[in-house]
TrEMBL record:
Alphabetic keyword roster: GTP-binding, Nucleotide-binding
UniProt GO molecular function: GTP binding; GTPase activity; RNA binding
GO cellular component: nucleolus
PANTHER family: NUCLEOLAR GTP-BINDING PROTEIN 1
GO biological process: ribosomal large subunit biogenesis
Name used for this protein in its record: OBG-type G domain-containing protein
Limits of the OBG-type G domain: 169-293
Keyword Lipid metabolism: no
Pfam families listed in its UniProt record: FeoB_N, NOG1, NOG1_N
Length: 293
């Protein structure tokens, strides 16, 4: 499994912008003047070239969008599950599938109209076929506007996530909210995690790095996870579960023995046992925090 960097994905334009860019490029890069002396064969070639050029540019633009977004089967399960938690992988696949369908449909439209242009018998007929071909291609692109907007939303969200290498040495900090996880991370790393005395301060996965005996470690602060069934957990909690399940890490489970976090020791122990299966084959250290309170 390869590590994937969502920050490298270029901005996904909306349907109208794609249409404007491609039509402008066609206007600039292909001949625009028809002279009186052109034979019917040359007229046909003139407009066939415009249709083919427009199709090729639409195809390349949509292909770039499809190729830049990762296939879920090709990326690390950590990122695959994170994408599913945040956006639903079925909707993600559907959006990419609709763009692929539009790409193929545009190619078919161009092929059909190029065939018709071969039998164009006048300047008016050839020009009308060209206008119809470009119009249908543009309509197809405009119809996938919601899919393009959805992918741009995913790109923006995933690009804001911290860069996490699922295969490097990792220390995963977990436990109930407000037990001191973020404070601990601030002490041992160069990350600056917001520390507030209320639950769910850590709204996403926060990453820092620390060195120990000449080795670099990745330290991840996870959102607080509550002692509830999986189906009742919210998106923040599911991010924690995704990290725990797929990262190759040593786990620090923080326990607030003072009870000042708002959860009793019994509740914290119950949380530990409810998610214990996620710690299988991972080094596990229970950290007793706030012993001075």
């Amino acid at each position: 499994m390869v590590q994937y960097n969502f920050k490298k994905i270029t901005v996904v334009p909306n349907g109208k912008d794609i249409v404007d860019i491609i039509l402008s490029r066609t206007q600039r890069q292909t001949p625009t003047v028809v002279h009186k002396g052109y034979s019917i064969t040359r007229l046909r070639q003139f407009y066939m070239r415009k249709v083919k050029y427009t199709q090729q540019n639409f195809f390349e633009k949509l292909s770039t969008i499809i190729d830049e977004f990762p296939r879920l089967d090709d990326i690390h399960p950590f990122y695959g599950d994170l994408l599913h938690v945040l956006y639903n992988k079925d909707h993600y696949k559907l959006a990419l599938g609709q763009i692929n369908t539009a790409r193929n449909l545009i190619s078919k439209i161009a092929k059909d109209y190029v065939k018709l242009l071969k039998y164009g018998d006048s300047l008016y007929r050839c020009k009308s076929l060209k206008v119809a071909a470009l119009g249908r291609m543009c309509t197809v692109v405009k119809r996938i506007g919601p899919s393009l907007a959805y992918l741009e939303q995913i790109r923006q969200h995933m690009a804001r996530l911290p860069s996490i290498d699922p295969n490097t040495r990792t220390i995963l900090i977990c436990g109930y909210p407000n037990v001191g996880k973020s404070s601990f991370m601030n002490k041992i790393t160069r990350a600056d995690v917001d520390v507030q005395p209320y639950a769910f301060t850590t709204k996403s996965l926060f990453v820092g790095h620390t060195d120990y005996k000449y080795l670099r470690y990745q330290v991840i602060d996870t959102p607080g996870i509550l002692d509830r069934p999986f189906e009742d957990r919210n998106i923040i909690e599911m991010c924690s579960i995704t990290a725990l399940a797929h990262l190759r890490s040593a786990v620090l489970f923080f326990l607030d023995i003072s009870g000042s976090c708002g959860y009793s020791i019994a509740q914290q122990a119950a949380l530990f046992h409810s998610i214990k299966s996620l710690f299988m084959n991972k080094p596990l250290i229970i950290v007793c925090n706030k012993t001075d309170l």
